[in-house]
Write a structure and sequence with these properties.
mainly alpha
Length: 331
């Protein structure tokens, strides 16, 4: 099953679409024949993901995966809907769990999909799930309209998270000084917040920020925001949503920091705050971005609606599978 690369056709041409459809069919046939059912694993094998990659290596992998993802645009509506359902639950569960919410991922799904309450769990925990999902819908709307992110948008994200829990604080900057409970890190005085947030938003929309790699920009924005700590509560969740709206606006999928790496995530924030060192947080975000991109490509590449899209992805993956069909991976 030989595959010859196609490089001279316009992506908008009928011939390009036809060849992409053929490659999709061959890809599915080859996966079936070789009994390679874990497409995500095959993508990882193609990229040769190693545990000790440098930051430069990780950026190269992300850029390659992002180029493959872009080759599937416009994304099929049914795939977009399926991914939204998946990430609404996963993002909400993990972001809330990092802050101490005890609802499991399956319980979070039940609350979002059926509206039922879970026995033994607090009302606040249920409201945190609903509020976070509302905030996800909002950042997706901001991304779809390429809305510039200002203080009003940030306050609105926070408002959606807290309006049913602490309406008097939702969308309002704190009026008292606070410390980080675990590290004694002293956040800026509350009377400086207006100036600091004005400076933050100016940086967020600056020309210098626009030329940064989107993941580096999102990492730095997240660290700057949580270090200002403009709200009394909800800064972590707001910061992770802010990070994701910046990524969505540049065509990346939502990236989810798993609760399982909570300690590494908090340690990375502390390293950034105390030593002005971004690389631990950046490394973590690159890792989760790679996982999100691979998962999206897995779902996209096998969906029937993707026929006619994704030619660069299929070309590379078919060449890889053809080369390794006689030497299957041994786990």
């Amino acid at each position: 099953m030989s595959v010859n690369p196609v490089s001279s056709l316009s992506p908008s041409s009928a011939a390009f679409t036809e060849i992409a459809g053929q490659r999709h069919d061959i890809f599915i046939q080859m996966l079936t024949q070789l009994r390679r059912y874990d497409v995500a694993q095959e993508i990882q094998n193609r990229l040769s993901l190693l545990p000790n990659m440098t930051l430069s290596d990780k950026f190269q992998q992300v850029d390659r995966l992002k180029a493959w993802l872009d080759s599937f645009r416009p994304l099929p509506p049914t795939v977009v809907a399926e991914l939204k359902k998946l990430y609404d639950v996963r993002f909400t569960y993990n972001s809330n769990a990092i802050e101490g919410n005890t609802l499991t991922q399956s319980e979070t799904a039940l609350v979002l999909e059926t509206g039922i309450t879970i026995g033994g769990k607090t009302l606040r925990e249920h409201l945190e799930v609903i509020g976070h999902k509302d905030a996800i819908d909002y950042i997706e709307l901001l991304a779809q309209h390429s809305t510039a992110i200002g203080e009003w948008e940030i306050k609105q994200i926070h408002n959606l998270i807290l309006r049913a829990i602490a309406p008097e604080e939702a969308g309002c900057y704190r009026q008292l000084d606070v410390k980080a409970a675990g590290t004694e890190y002293v956040y800026p005085p509350h009377y400086l917040l207006n100036d600091l947030m004005t400076e933050f938003v100016t940086w967020l929309n600056s020309a210098s920020s626009a030329v940064e790699h989107p993941i580096k920009f999102a990492a730095e924005a997240h660290l700057r925001f949580v270090s200002i700590h403009p709200f009394r509560d909800g800064n972590g969740r707001t910061g992770r949503l802010l990070m994701n709206v910046l990524l969505l606006q540049t065509g990346y999928p939502i990236i989810v920091i798993p609760n399982q790496v909570r300690k590494a995530y908090i340690d990375a924030i502390v390293e950034g705050q105390q030593r002005n060192e971004l690389s631990p947080l950046l490394t973590l975000l690159l890792d989760v971005a790679i996982r999100s991109l691979i998962e999206m490509l897995h779902i996209l590449s096998t969906a029937q609606e993707s026929r006619g899209r994704g030619l660069p992805f299929y070309e590379e993956m078919l060449a890889f599978l053809s080369e390794h069909r006689e030497n299957p991976r041994v786990d």
